[in-house]
Design a protein that fits this description.
It contains 14 helices and 13 strands. The chain is α+β, with helices and mostly antiparallel strands. The structure holds a DNA duplex.
DNA sequence: CTCTGCCTTAC
DNA sequence: CCAGGTAGGCAGAG
């Protein structure tokens, strides 16, 4: 059920984005990091500087460092710059995030946390118009700064799409308001790659069709878009190019899959070299499953070979289960099968459970029996 | 329709 | 020679 505003007019949606989140958290607990490039890294099991950049602050970005970049490359860009490289500390960031999210949630009619550093808020009922919402956003930025110590960027729009693109428009520490009457203009000027769900591949395809801006996109027929991108994406693009988005702000639903993936100490195609990791992964998945009170019916594995190509295998069980044994057993069988099929050395290994249902809950219980 | 495997996105 | 996790769509087989 969606919230309809008392005005009977458009919704008012905010998108809050915590700035360079992991790196800002690190600055928060160490004042000696101020004014220095800070790079938060995911180090792999390979040791040394093997791994990738997760996030970095704006001082590091000034030297060309970006998320996803190999750590070695970031170090090269920042050599002689008094930069700090830190490993991710998920626990700590989660605790900081929880504080912020609690503040936001308390100020929304409907709330949707999308990730550790992003949330949508529907404020249609508590704000009488966009000016009112702008004042609320200002207050929220103040409160997050004074009580947690972080800056964030907020976008306000008539739906989630506009709000999201608005928060992205000016950062860090931005506040962008796009009134309904301005939404079409705001979005039309953007290049298509700025649209939510339009990544590298989709952008390249659109460009090859001569489509570069959202205005270009809005001229394409829905049939063409569906033909080229499939039903779901085609309709999405057609609406998005017009600033239309009816998605309600709602609490995020139950997890649909739980997975863990790891990089092996060394590339190998021998199963004995993988069993320890496979077991650890199975245990991690199981732990998360139990914590969330869920049962699974499908077990899968994923392999990334040394040439970075990937392959996955999954199997459906006859009954729902929450047994660690089932995860580990089936994962092993699937791994054996995959190794028979290809002897390419494996670099990374993953385990996943899906087809999840809650242990409690009535509709679930019926399906379980 | 169900299941599998692959692809794309994004944080 | 570079992380890890999740979601969702789609195509093809059965």
């Amino acid at each position: 059920m969606s919230i309809s505003s008392s005005r009977g007019k458009s919704r008012i949606v905010m998108h809050v984005d915590l700035d360079y989140f992991y790196a800002q958290c690190e600055e928060l607990r160490r004042n000696d990091l101020k004014d220095r490039p800070v790079v938060v890294c995911v180090y792999s099991a390979r040791g040394g500087d093997s791994g990738a950049v997760s996030t970095c602050n704006y001082k590091a970005r000034a030297y060309g460092v970006k998320a996803g970049m190999p750590i070695v490359q970031a170090k090269r860009l920042l050599r002689e710059q008094d930069a700090v490289f830190l490993p991710v500390d998920e626990q700590y960031y989660t605790s900081v995030s929880d504080m912020v999210m609690a503040i936001l949630r308390a100020n929304a009619d409907a709330f949707e946390q999308v990730s550790i550093d992003e949330a949508y808020m529907d404020v249609s009922m508590r704000c009488k118009d966009f000016d009112d919402a702008t004042r609320l956003a200002s207050r929220l930025k103040d409160e997050v700064r004074t009580s947690v110590g972080l800056t964030c960027s907020i976008g306000i729009g008539m739906n989630k799409l506009i709000a999201k693109m608005a928060s992205d428009y000016r950062k860090p520490d931005g506040l962008t308001v796009v009134r309904p009457e301005d939404a079409k203009d705001f979005i039309s000027r953007m290049s298509v790659g700025k649209l939510l769900w339009v990544g590298k591949k989709t952008e390249a395809t659109l460009n090859s069709m001569g489509i570069y801006t959202v205005a270009d996109l809005a001229k394409v027929s829905i049939d063409t878009l569906i033909k080229e991108f499939g039903r779901k994406m085609g309709i999405y693009l057609y609406n998005a190019s017009r600033g239309i988005d009816e998605e309600p702000v709602k609490e995020s639903a139950m997890a649909k899959q739980i997975s863990r993936i790891t990089t092996l100490k060394r590339n190998t195609s021998a199963i004995e070299d993988m069993l320890d990791d496979l077991n650890t992964l199975s245990m991690d998945v199981h732990k998360s499953l139990v914590e969330q009170g869920l049962l699974f019916r499908s077990v899968g594995i994923m392999l990334v070979y040394e040439d970075l190509s990937m392959r996955s295998r999954a199997r459906m069980l006859k009954h729902y289960s929450n047994s660690m044994d089932d995860i580990a057993r089936y994962a092993r069988v699937l791994l054996e099968e995959a190794l028979e099929e290809s002897s390419k050395p494996v670099r990374r290994l993953g385990v996943k459970v899906s087809d999840l249902v809650s242990v409690k809950g009535q509709e679930t219980l019926q399906r379980f029996m």
